[in-house]
Specification:
alpha/beta, 5-stranded mixed beta sheet, 10 strands, about 40% helix
């Protein structure tokens, strides 16, 4: 079968049903103008064809468009290199959107020159969804290690639920930050809500005593259940080495009575 070469009209029709925005840039002309756009690009940006053809693609840039991304695009065009990145662009009405951009150099033999084919896909919804998930993760993290002010320079850290190695590291990080930022002199670690009794996790939580000593603060432990007390004996932790009370209230009463 002979090779089939589609006509320009067929190629335009194919590109116009393509859902993503497609542009062609002439990198050799002054200011690298856009020489072709498909319908998907016009729908994506809100511009009319006459407003785009002959313009530089910077028409899509705005205050939040990263300078580094712009520089990467310019460098790729200058060096005739393909590039794929995510960039903030702006529609004609000023609305900001996230775009996944693929720029690919295309050599046209008949013209003995390069063009750049650009394909833009709107990923705004995906980006904002990811940001919401990250925000939820931050909220969950904050709730998982709440360091609560009780009285002057005395804070409480109730441990509720299961603690794994990742959460244990968060606890150490948050305690360290709180000591520096909130001037914590005494931290009451309440273990009444601790569910899992893993040897490593228990040892890790009790190691907070050493961390606070190094930082010039003290640790009081409350809420030690009979099961937890038994576990500390099994792993050779001597509770007499720590300040312990039955409840947070008992610890606070002791602190207020201590000169």
């Amino acid at each position: 079968m002979d090779d089939f070469y589609p006509s320009k009209d067929l190629l335009k029709k194919v590109l116009n049903v393509f859902p993503s925005g497609v542009i062609v840039i002439d990198p050799d002309a002054d200011d690298c103008p856009i020489v072709y756009v498909n319908k998907g690009f016009l729908q994506l940006t809100g511009y009319e064809k006459e407003e785009i053809i002959g313009k530089n693609s910077r028409i899509l840039h705005g205050i939040d468009t990263p300078a580094a991304a712009i520089a990467d695009i310019q460098n790729a065009i200058t060096n005739r290199k393909a590039i794929s990145l995510e960039i903030i662009n702006y529609r004609k009405n000023g609305e900001k959107f996230w775009s996944e951009l693929l720029l690919e150099p295309v050599y046209v033999e008949s013209e003995k020159k390069y063009y750049f084919l650009g394909i833009q896909t709107d990923i705004t919804e995906q980006k904002y969804s990811a940001e919401k998930i990250n925000a939820y993760d931050d909220d969950i993290h904050s709730l998982s290690t709440p360091i609560i002010p009780i009285v002057d320079y005395v804070f409480a850290l109730p441990i509720i639920g299961n603690v794994n190695e990742e959460r244990l590291q968060h606890i150490f990080d948050d305690v360290t930050e709180a000591i520096y930022s909130a001037n914590v002199e005494t931290l009451i670690l309440d273990l009444s809500g601790l569910h899992n009794l893993s040897d490593d996790i228990i040892k890790g939580l009790f190691t907070l005593h050493e961390l606070l000593e190094l930082l010039g603060s003290e640790l009081i432990i409350t809420g030690i259940s009979p099961e937890l007390a038994e576990k500390t004996e099994e792993i050779e932790l001597d509770l007499n080495d720590f300040q312990t009370y039955e409840t947070i209230k008992d610890a606070i009463v002791f602190k207020q009575q201590t000169p």
